Amino acid sequence: MAEVEELLDGVVVRLPDAGEIRRRGQRRRARRRAGVAALCTAALLAGGAWVLLPDGAGRQHERGGQVAVAPDNPFLVNGVVRTLPPGEVPLNDTWHWKQNEGRSVDSDSRGDLLNWAGISEFCPAEAQRTRPVSSAGYTVEYRGVRKAVARQCIVEYDDGATARQELLSVLTGLEANGLSRVPVASTEVPKSDPDRVPEGVPDEWGDKEGTMAWAGKVPGGHTLRVFTQRWKSWVSVVEIVDGDS
């Protein structure tokens, strides 16, 4: 190996050649990368996600954050369809729901109101032949105090486009039969207006994956409340007929 010698105050300094300088630089960079990898491993074990961004000077900036996780299907847990337990049915504080274990809730005049506004065409128990062939439905019923009744219908379609159209059909039926959209947490009932002209249901509502709530008076002076929700190819409709005041 060629060496350069310089005499400084009687001390001989031997400088490495260009090839040796490059090899030393490569070894330093390898050690730096190993340190960065160890830091990433420690951050992941600590439960967070870290992004290491090199700057022009070779330093590393750390930016903390959680790993983005796709939302889970609210209607399917561990491969099993999840219907609402009684305590999660809307207005449970008022009606104290229990899952129905006797005769069907629509076997009496009040329960039959659950089929109002064309919802019988959506719920699988009443309309297997009218719904799209490429679907699977699940229904659970509830009874509450003072003769209140409720039902949840969940339908899984083959694709999101079909689910969207089915949800729009449900919403259009509610609007056409005098129900109005209300805040989800509201217990108020819009005043009935016999001269009210139904409005067109916006197409974008079919894309809404959150919960929408509807309420209105139905025959007999009872109040019908409907809560709709879609998740991709799944649609859920929860209906409630209020109990006696």
Describe the structure.
The structure is a single chain. The chain has 245 residues and is α+β, with helices and mostly antiparallel strands. Helix content is 22%, strand content 31%. It is built from four helices and 13 strands. It has helices spanning 18-45, 92-95, 109-112, 160-176; strands at 4-8, 11-15, 49-54, 60-65, 76-77, 80-81, 98-99, 135-143, 149-157, 180-182, 211-218, 222-231, 234-241. Strands 7-8-9-13-12-11-10 form a seven-stranded antiparallel beta sheet, with helices on one face. It is elongated. The model is unreliable at 1-8, 39-64 and 126-130 (pLDDT under 50).
Biggest beta sheet summary: 7 strands, antiparallel
Q: What portion of the residues fall into strands of 2 or more residues?
A: 25-35%
How many H/I helical runs? 4
Helix content: 10-25%
Low-pLDDT windows of residues: 1-8, 39-64, 126-130
- Terminal CA distance reads 101 Å
Counting helices, strands and paired strands, the structural category is: alpha+beta
N to C succession of SSEs: EEHEEEEHEHEEHEEEE
Quick overview:
It contains four helices and 13 strands. The protein has 245 residues and is of the alpha+beta class.
Provide keyphrases for this structure:
245 residues, 13 strands, 7-stranded antiparallel β-sheet, alpha+beta, 4 helices, two-stranded antiparallel ribbon
